[in-house]
């Protein structure tokens, strides 16, 4: 089987070498398309591929139409909204992610962002401490639990909301369960968002929720840009000069937000939650192993388009 690694933003050289070793060790052919400039290059490259490993690369219906031999796509990372799942299912292509491989990197960034904003973006101005503050975690999965553990070690009180977990499971993860979004936002000095971008979550966090946050609160987004109602965010920041927003996913209206609100808003230049050497390696190797296991045994444990 031909396994293609297609990445506009390449894996590290060590990760690529590790992927190649796993692929060829299992008796498959390895191929790579890195730093491609246009989607047409991906369309051409997938023509004879049996499997595809991607990062934030878009696997569209056009890509799937061109990939006549394609059986599986693995997104090296947790999010998979860059893959057209309906088109993949129609083409009988299995789509997987690699949950947990980037979790620690994202969790460390979320905590760092909280401290960055608490300490006035490391300027000489007087800041505040996170110890003793309440952190609300929206979605208590792999990343959320790690954020909670790290924040608890800093002396924060942890609240969590996750509709897929029981209160007992949330408590076992070291957090106090909260049962609705209004309560989570109203009770938290910091809210850390870890939800995917789905039809039910897109623009779900806006004016009404944000303005429920206590005085001086900060909203932290290392999830997806699309879950924020950016106009609602702007309105909330206008009406509540005590609120702050920090994100790993630059808003479309970022220049306007910075112009209006200055250091109350900060976005990283590009999404960098998973941009560590460790996460890069972990996710890439996991993707290769999952594909080889799929071809050897039919294992579809991490399939997301069932």
Question: What attributes characterize this protein structure?
Answer:
306 residues, 38% helix, Rossmann fold, 2 domains, 12 helices, 7-stranded parallel β-sheet, single chain, alpha/beta
Structural features, described:
- The structure is a single chain.
- The protein is an alpha/beta fold.
- It is built from twelve helices and twelve strands.
- Helix 7 (167-172) links the parallel strand 7 (157-161) and strand 8.
- Helix 1 runs parallel beside helix 12 and helix 5 (103-118) crosses helix 6 (142-153).
- The model has no long low-confidence stretch (mean pLDDT 96).
Q: By CATH's scheme, which homologous superfamily of the largest domain applies?
A: NAD(P)-binding Rossmann-like Domain
Please write the string of helix (H) and strand (E) elements: EHEHEHEHEHEHEHEHEHEHEHEH
Helix-residue proportion: 25-40%
Radius of gyration: 21 Å
Low-confidence stretches: none
User: What CATH architecture of the largest domain do you see?
Assistant: 3-Layer(aba) Sandwich
- Count of separate DSSP helical elements: 12
The CATH class of the largest domain, by name, is Alpha Beta
Query: If strands are numbered along the chain, what order do they take across the biggest sheet?
Result: 8-7-6-9-10-11-12
Average pLDDT over all residues: 96
Topology, element by element:
Elements: E1 2-7, H1 13-25, E2 29-34, H2 39-45, E3 51-54, H3 61-66, E4 72-75, H4 85-90, E5 94-97, H5 103-118, E6 134-138, H6 142-153, E7 157-161, H7 167-172, E8 176-177, H8 181-186, E9 190-193, H9 207-210, E10 218-221, H10 230-239, E11 244-247, H11 254-261, E12 265-267, H12 277-297
Parallel strand pairs: 1-2, 1-3, 3-4, 4-5, 6-7, 6-9, 7-8, 9-10, 10-11, 11-12
Helix pairs in contact: 1-12, 5-6
